[in-house]
# Entry
Amino acid sequence: MKVCYLGLGSNQQVPERQLRRAIKSIKSLPSTVITKISSFYWNKAWGLQGQQDFCNTVIEISTRLPPLQLLDACQKIEKKQGRVRKKHWGPRVIDIDILYYEDNNIRSKKLVIPHPQIQFRDFVLIPLMEINPNYELKES
# Structure
């Protein structure tokens, strides 16, 4: 099993409910167990200003799914919850990002791990440090 960290965020359609729905769906992924869930944190939008605040959390999972298969599973969950990709950094019902996948470094058109610019995103850093205060950040 590989230890991974996922960042979840929402600012549409009762964001806390969207996070709970996504967590429930992640729990049902094959060969995957959620080991830790941070508190939910409310934050101002990052990147594209002038939209509703986001509710964010970070979860730690153990999985046997390879990175691209995990990405596909996360994107299916997003689609099932109504995510439509219209505007970069725009409002969204749910966003599930693979922040870290063990110590893997991946740079492809479809996936970059560690997730870009984590070190600048308090909405990721604060919940990540809550569930693993000794985690050593790695930059992409």
